[in-house]
């Protein structure tokens, strides 16, 4: 892996297939994923004992199927994700730990599924220990610990510290152990995730907190999880994490705990965006180009109903232009604001957190050209909505040089399915 990514403002193809051909065949807007990128990222985590994919990042069944065939297991944060993992072929055999339920609560449906299939649980609240123990006495659980500090590229993705709802507060370990004792539940693992975009300085603090907490729980601990949060560069001046150093820090922690407890401690990692973000592209067609005061707007047929990250976090996505004819790289570069079709002023892809509109230098575009929103494979389609009664986009997977439809574009019938006009 190179230390920094390389982005261009013009793009002719994705995984060897012309952007224009993809748009012509599948329509727009359309999500396209490059399976080779996912495979490379999986391979880069081979040193960890278990790679557990946070499927909330990108949960299409075809992608989960490919993950499973590469030996990657999954976590599920809802009853729906448990069903999704099962539909993708993951086993519910409790001895295999292929599906782990990780959440801060049990809704009733999720608890019923966990009990029915004896699924492993990663508890994010003390109440979950008691609720599981009442239904499944003697169960093994892991605990997701909030160490009291967090980190993230946005306050909304910071999952540690006292302002985060996630995890069991680090001073409540004794309470959790007492709850576990009441129903014979055993704490066999610990999980600690403080937010996305973590760096090595923060990671060292997390490792120290994990070690302290594991010693407090004791030698029943058999597994520690590094959680997720591996950063993905979205800008040319951002860097990839040093995976070798990342692993070394966690491996050293695991080794010390193994020596302390007198038995092996397995090391898991739980990536989401790291595996899928860079594989994904959202292709949209330019439908209008207009001047509004000093701003040059390029309006496309995809909106925040398709990709919500910019409006939610002010998230930056690389953007490139694919010309319908000719080569966009030969066109003049101009500063543009890229927006969508929705009846909302916030429907802008080039904005900073807080809703401040930015411009982006891109090749001059014309109606009919294609805009490609890149690094869109994590928290892209999975956060899509039907706002403004928009139908959700198709999804396409490219593997072996072939573009394969993995989700049909929604229709109006899909949009209103389930709605009822009573007499």
Structural class: alpha/beta
Q: Strand percentage, roughly?
A: 15-25%
| Tally of helical runs | 12
Number of strands: 22
Helix content: 25-40%
Q: Choose one word for the global shape.
A: globular
Q: Provide the residue-averaged pLDDT.
A: 93
Main beta-sheet annotation: 9 strands, mixed
Distance linking N and C termini: 62 Å
Layout: helices, strands, pairs:
Layout: E1 13-14, E2 17-18, H1 19-26, E3 30-34, H2 35-43, E4 50-54, H3 61-69, E5 73-76, H4 79-87, E6 99-103, H5 108-117, E7 121-123, H6 126-135, E8 140-146, E9 168-169, H7 173-182, E10 186-191, H8 200-217, E11 223-225, H9 243-261, E12 266-269, H10 273-276, E13 280-292, E14 295-300, H11 309-313, E15 319-322, E16 333-339, E17 351-352, E18 356-357, E19 360-363, E20 370-374, E21 394-399, E22 402-407, H12 412-416
Parallel strand pairs: 3-21, 4-5, 4-12, 5-6, 6-7, 7-8, 8-9, 8-10, 10-11, 11-12, 14-16
Antiparallel strand pairs: 1-2, 3-13, 13-14, 13-20, 15-20, 16-19, 17-18, 21-22
Helix pairs in contact: 6-7, 8-9
């Amino acid at each position: 892996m190179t230390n920094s990514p390389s982005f261009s403002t013009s793009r002719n193809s994705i995984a060897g297939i012309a952007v224009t051909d993809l748009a012509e065949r599948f329509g727009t807007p359309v999500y396209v994923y490059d399976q080779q990128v996912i495979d490379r990222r999986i391979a880069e985590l081979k040193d960890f004992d278990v790679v557990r994919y946070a499927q909330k990042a990108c949960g299409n069944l075809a992608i989960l199927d490919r993950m499973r065939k590469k030996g990657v297991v999954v976590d599920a944060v809802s009853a729906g994700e448990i069903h999704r993992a099962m539909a993708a072929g993951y086993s519910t055999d409790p001895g295999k730990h292929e599906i782990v339920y990780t959440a801060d609560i049990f809704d009733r449906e999720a608890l019923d599924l966990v009990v029915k299939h004896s699924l492993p649980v990663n508890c994010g609240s003390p109440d979950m220990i008691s609720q599981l123990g009442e239904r499944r006495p003697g169960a093994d659980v892991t605990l997701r610990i909030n160490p009291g500090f967090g980190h993230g590229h946005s306050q909304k993705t910071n999952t540690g510290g006292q302002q985060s709802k996630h995890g069991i507060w680090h001073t409540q370990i004794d309470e959790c152990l007492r709850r576990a004792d009441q129903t014979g539940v055993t704490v066999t693992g610990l999980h600690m995730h403080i937010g996305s975009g973590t760096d090595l300085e923060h990671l060292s603090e997390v490792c120290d907190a994990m070690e302290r907490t594991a010693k407090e729980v004791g030698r029943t601990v058999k597994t520690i999880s590094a959680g997720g949060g591996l950063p993905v560069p979205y800008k040319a001046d951002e860097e990839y994490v040093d995976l070798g150093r990342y692993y070394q820090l966690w491996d050293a922690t695991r080794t010390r705990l193994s020596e302390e407890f007198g038995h092996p401690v397995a090391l898991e990692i739980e990536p989401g965006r790291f595996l899928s973000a860079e594989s994904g592209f959202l292709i949209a067609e330019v439908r209008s180009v207009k001047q509004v005061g000093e701003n040059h707007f390029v309006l496309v047929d995809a909106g925040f109903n398709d990709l919500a990250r910019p409006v939610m976090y002010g998230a930056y996505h690389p953007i490139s232009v694919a010309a319908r004819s000719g080569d966009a790289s030969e066109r003049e570069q101009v500063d543009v604001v890229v927006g969508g079709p929705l009846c909302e002023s916030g429907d802008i892809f080039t904005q900073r957190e807080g809703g401040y509109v930015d411009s982006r230098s891109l090749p001059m575009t014309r109606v009919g050209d294609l805009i490609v929103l890149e690094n869109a494979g994590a928290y892209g389609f999975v956060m899509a909505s039907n706002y403004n009664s928009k139908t959700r986009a198709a999804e396409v997977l490219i593997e072996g040089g072939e573009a394969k439809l993995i989700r049909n574009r929604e229709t109006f019938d899909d949009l209103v399915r389930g709605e009822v006009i009573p007499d």
